[in-house]
Design goal:
- The protein is mostly helical.
- Helix 1 packs across helix 3 and helix 3 packs antiparallel against helix 7.
Amino acid sequence: GTLAQGEVRHAIVLFENTYHAAEDVLTEADLEGLSHQQLCLARNEIYARHGRRFKNKDIAAYFAEKDWYYPSIDASVFDANQNSYLSEDELYNATFMLGYEKRKFGKSYY
């Protein structure tokens, strides 16, 4: 079954706190408890925190509710210049999370 919106929020908040408190590289143990949707949103949060706009309506709507989200960079520009926007650890984590998501669930959620 799908998680209620509140449960998704709760899990992401837990993830945000873990991720931002650590600000270091993630391991599979950090991701094990997340659902497919949570994992996808958590990965995209790395981009969202740097102002990346999202073409996917569900992702865009999710981050639009966040008071810290200021969409300012077109997706194509951001994606072509990730090294300029993301730290080494953020790049590693985003790549690691996508790999984990594909291994565990076969594809990206959105």
